[in-house]
Amino acid sequence: MKLWVLRHGEAVPHGSRPHDSERELTDNGRKEVLKIAAELMGQPLTGIYASPYLRAQQTAHLVRDALGFEPEIRTVEWLTPDTEPDKVAEQMVAVSNVLLVSHNPLVGNLLSYLQHGAGHPPERVSTAGLAELKGEELLVGSMKLDSIKHP
Q: I need a surface site. Which of 16, 112, 123, 132 has the fewest CB within 10 A?
Protein backbone atom coordinates (compact mmCIF):
# COMPACT_ATOMS: atom_id res chain seq x y z
CA MET A 1 0.00 0.00 0.00
CA LYS A 2 1.03 3.59 -0.53
CA LEU A 3 0.05 6.71 1.32
CA TRP A 4 0.84 10.24 0.22
CA VAL A 5 0.78 13.15 2.64
CA LEU A 6 0.80 16.66 1.22
CA ARG A 7 1.20 19.83 3.22
CA HIS A 8 -0.86 22.69 1.76
CA GLY A 9 0.87 25.31 -0.38
CA GLU A 10 2.10 28.64 0.95
CA ALA A 11 -0.78 30.60 2.50
CA VAL A 12 -1.37 34.21 3.44
CA PRO A 13 0.13 35.01 6.86
CA HIS A 14 -1.75 34.78 10.13
CA GLY A 15 -3.71 37.91 10.94
CA SER A 16 -4.69 38.80 7.39
CA ARG A 17 -7.96 36.88 7.79
CA PRO A 18 -10.31 36.59 10.78
CA HIS A 19 -9.50 32.93 11.49
CA ASP A 20 -6.69 30.50 10.71
CA SER A 21 -9.10 28.17 8.91
CA GLU A 22 -9.88 30.94 6.39
CA ARG A 23 -6.30 31.58 5.26
CA GLU A 24 -5.99 31.07 1.51
CA LEU A 25 -3.15 30.12 -0.79
CA THR A 26 -0.89 32.81 -2.17
CA ASP A 27 -0.04 32.94 -5.89
CA ASN A 28 3.29 31.33 -4.98
CA GLY A 29 1.44 28.66 -3.00
CA ARG A 30 -0.66 27.78 -6.04
CA LYS A 31 2.51 27.46 -8.15
CA GLU A 32 4.11 25.22 -5.49
CA VAL A 33 1.09 22.91 -5.48
CA LEU A 34 0.91 22.65 -9.26
CA LYS A 35 4.62 21.85 -9.42
CA ILE A 36 4.38 19.09 -6.79
CA ALA A 37 1.15 17.67 -8.30
CA ALA A 38 3.24 16.43 -11.23
CA GLU A 39 4.87 13.96 -8.79
CA LEU A 40 1.52 12.21 -8.46
CA MET A 41 1.00 11.66 -12.20
CA GLY A 42 0.55 7.98 -12.95
CA GLN A 43 0.32 6.96 -9.30
CA PRO A 44 -2.44 4.48 -8.26
CA LEU A 45 -4.40 7.12 -6.33
CA THR A 46 -7.83 5.95 -5.14
CA GLY A 47 -8.92 8.94 -3.05
CA ILE A 48 -8.09 12.43 -1.82
CA TYR A 49 -8.85 13.40 1.78
CA ALA A 50 -8.46 17.03 2.86
CA SER A 51 -8.74 19.23 5.90
CA PRO A 52 -11.74 21.57 5.84
CA TYR A 53 -9.42 24.60 6.15
CA LEU A 54 -9.51 26.80 3.05
CA ARG A 55 -5.82 26.48 2.11
CA ALA A 56 -5.99 22.67 2.26
CA GLN A 57 -9.19 22.63 0.22
CA GLN A 58 -7.60 24.87 -2.41
CA THR A 59 -4.52 22.62 -2.46
CA ALA A 60 -6.61 19.45 -2.85
CA HIS A 61 -8.67 20.95 -5.68
CA LEU A 62 -5.57 22.12 -7.55
CA VAL A 63 -4.09 18.61 -7.33
CA ARG A 64 -7.38 16.97 -8.33
CA ASP A 65 -7.73 19.24 -11.37
CA ALA A 66 -4.07 18.84 -12.39
CA LEU A 67 -4.39 15.04 -12.28
CA GLY A 68 -7.82 14.91 -13.88
CA PHE A 69 -8.87 12.84 -10.84
CA GLU A 70 -12.59 12.05 -11.04
CA PRO A 71 -13.71 11.17 -7.48
CA GLU A 72 -14.78 13.95 -5.17
CA ILE A 73 -12.44 15.21 -2.46
CA ARG A 74 -13.41 13.86 0.96
CA THR A 75 -13.36 16.69 3.48
CA VAL A 76 -12.61 15.37 6.98
CA GLU A 77 -12.23 17.07 10.36
CA TRP A 78 -9.44 14.68 11.39
CA LEU A 79 -6.89 16.38 9.10
CA THR A 80 -6.81 19.76 10.87
CA PRO A 81 -3.46 21.06 12.20
CA ASP A 82 -3.72 19.97 15.84
CA THR A 83 -5.19 16.49 15.36
CA GLU A 84 -3.17 13.75 17.03
CA PRO A 85 -1.53 11.31 14.58
CA ASP A 86 -3.15 8.27 16.19
CA LYS A 87 -6.60 9.67 15.33
CA VAL A 88 -5.59 9.87 11.65
CA ALA A 89 -4.12 6.35 11.71
CA GLU A 90 -7.42 5.01 13.11
CA GLN A 91 -9.28 6.53 10.14
CA MET A 92 -6.85 5.12 7.58
CA VAL A 93 -7.02 1.43 8.57
CA ALA A 94 -9.31 0.34 5.72
CA VAL A 95 -7.94 2.51 2.90
CA SER A 96 -4.87 2.47 0.72
CA ASN A 97 -3.31 4.51 -2.05
CA VAL A 98 -4.80 7.79 -0.90
CA LEU A 99 -3.56 11.36 -0.67
CA LEU A 100 -3.99 13.25 2.60
CA VAL A 101 -3.87 17.06 2.35
CA SER A 102 -3.22 18.71 5.69
CA HIS A 103 -1.08 21.10 7.75
CA ASN A 104 1.81 21.19 10.15
CA PRO A 105 2.19 20.21 12.91
CA LEU A 106 0.02 17.22 11.92
CA VAL A 107 1.92 16.41 8.70
CA GLY A 108 5.33 16.17 10.39
CA ASN A 109 3.95 14.34 13.41
CA LEU A 110 1.98 11.86 11.30
CA LEU A 111 4.96 10.97 9.11
CA SER A 112 7.10 10.32 12.18
CA TYR A 113 4.35 8.34 13.91
CA LEU A 114 3.70 6.05 10.95
CA GLN A 115 7.43 5.31 10.58
CA HIS A 116 8.58 5.08 14.19
CA GLY A 117 5.57 5.12 16.51
CA ALA A 118 5.00 7.67 19.26
CA GLY A 119 7.68 9.82 20.84
CA HIS A 120 9.89 10.62 17.85
CA PRO A 121 10.58 14.12 16.48
CA PRO A 122 8.39 15.21 13.56
CA GLU A 123 9.58 15.08 9.96
CA ARG A 124 10.35 18.46 8.45
CA VAL A 125 8.01 19.26 5.56
CA SER A 126 7.89 22.58 3.69
CA THR A 127 4.76 24.08 2.18
CA ALA A 128 3.56 21.87 -0.68
CA GLY A 129 5.95 19.15 0.52
CA LEU A 130 4.80 15.72 -0.59
CA ALA A 131 5.72 12.58 1.35
CA GLU A 132 5.26 9.04 0.06
CA LEU A 133 4.99 6.18 2.54
CA LYS A 134 4.94 2.48 1.69
CA GLY A 135 4.09 -0.61 3.68
CA GLU A 136 2.36 -3.96 3.57
CA GLU A 137 -0.47 -2.40 5.58
CA LEU A 138 -0.96 0.69 7.65
CA LEU A 139 0.57 -0.27 10.97
CA VAL A 140 1.95 2.40 13.26
CA GLY A 141 5.72 2.31 13.24
CA SER A 142 5.90 -0.01 10.24
CA MET A 143 5.59 2.32 7.26
CA LYS A 144 8.68 3.24 5.25
CA LEU A 145 9.17 6.82 4.13
CA ASP A 146 10.01 6.41 0.45
CA SER A 147 10.51 10.14 -0.24
CA ILE A 148 9.70 13.69 0.71
CA LYS A 149 9.66 16.00 -2.29
CA HIS A 150 9.56 19.77 -2.10
CA PRO A 151 8.55 22.09 -4.94
A: 16
